[in-house]
Amino acid sequence: MRARRPAGHRAPGSEGRRVKRTPRVLIAPDTFKGSLTAHEVSLALAAGLQEGPGKGAVDCRLLPLADGGDGSVDAALAAGFGRQQISVTGPTGQPVVAAVAFDGSTAVVEVANSCGLALLSHDELAPLDASSRGFGEVILHALALGPRRIVLALGGSASTDGGMGMLSALGYTFHDAHGTTLHGNGRALHEIDSVEAPPPSALANLELVLASDVRNPLLGPDGAARVFGPQKGAGPEEVSFLEAGLAHLVDVVEAAGCASARAVASAAGSGSAGGLGFACALLGARQVSGAEFFLDLLGFDDASQGCDVIITGEGSIDEQTLAGKLPAAVARRAGVTPVLAVVGRSLLPKERWSELPVRSVYALTDYTDQDSSRDPRLSAELLRTIGQEIRTTLFLEPMP
Predict the structure, then answer these.
(1) Which of its termini does the chain have fewer beta carbons within 10 Å around, N or C?
(2) Which GO terms describe its molecular function (predicted)?
């Protein structure tokens, strides 16, 4: 394949700078959703950097990252965490194999690999019937490992059930007016008449960290149903149905003795993952910036020491990226080290790159007329090409 080579990229440090020793490059991207994991993105870029024209070698350090969404467990595994696997209830009841990352004290669990939207095809979307139960089952498995801390990565959910499914898996019981136990999903929210909490469990004795950069509340025009429901297949009537169901859930939880339920529902982040943020906060989880937390957890500061350039990226760079998604967090943390962004597509004009701040943005869409967003092989080839181009433009003198 012969890729197009767009013009306009300037070499970081090209303003008179020369790198005379073996250059060190930290490759620290997020996943390209639907295409490649962060680890696969890192490998493809490194292959291009190390095989491009010119003498000498490039010292590539790979640090696949995450921000609390898809790929959070994979990023922890790539950083040396051990893998634990468990079969759990998928978003629409089918069994799925989910993974937990564990290093002896911290367990990382994620919605995306247990009850996530990516586990369903477009024809299988079930905005009313999808459940977060599988996430609760993954948490139970993590608890059995004896961690001191569990990181809850909430991105990519298929459900809008306010965490009802997760809480059911953790021992909470929801009844309708006839005393019948309800299954946790968006359709059942209206039917809840009472909720019973389980006896205190091991959850009360450990740190729960909710890693997410979503700031939406549970209810209202910026809430879980109205903003994210359509992404999960909900039409206008279903969105209204889910919104009313979530409001009813808050009323029931408050009536059950949780005086803070309404305040929790109004807090930033309670609307993440179809309302899982609300349920996790009720369990005592504290929310942190997903991007910043994973930079610390995975050792970004140490990995970036002594590097000449940092390459980061994600599937799409846009206004949300400026609000604090991973590439922006990496660029801010990098300090004076030049940062390049390699992305699937860029919706930011060149004059706004400095807002991240990055020196250049390389978008796969600039190198092909084909759609690479669902083509892992094409994406990897394009990333390799971009790696070669960065090598040829980055260092202005041949390496010894």
Answers:
(1) C
(2) glycerate kinase activity
3-state secondary structure of 292: helix
Place of tokens 């009850």: 115
Q: Which residues pair with 195 in a beta bridge?
A: 174
- What are the tokens at 317? 């760079």
Cα–Cα dist 49/175, whole Å: 59
**The residue to which tokens 């609000």 are assigned:** 323
pLDDT, one tens digit for every residue, the chain (400 residues): 445 556 555 545 444 445 456 889 999 999 998 889 999 999 999 999 998 666 567 899 999 999 988 899 999 998 899 999 999 999 999 999 999 999 999 999 999 999 999 999 888 999 999 999 999 999 999 999 999 999 999 989 999 999 999 999 999 999 999 999 999 999 999 999 999 999 888 788 899 999 988 899 999 999 999 999 999 999 999 999 999 999 999 999 999 999 999 999 999 999 999 999 999 999 999 999 999 999 999 999 999 999 999 999 999 888 777 777 899 999 999 999 999 999 999 988 888 888 888 999 999 999 999 989 889 999 999 999 999 999 887 654 443 3
Distances in Å between the alpha carbon of 213 and those of 136, 144, 187, 320? 21, 28, 27, 10
* Cβ pair 362, 386 in contact under 8 A: yes
Alpha-carbon span 328 to 156, nearest angstrom: 20
Cα distance between residue 265 and residue 258, in whole Å: 12
**Is the Cβ–Cβ distance between 364 and 383 less than 8 Å?**
yes
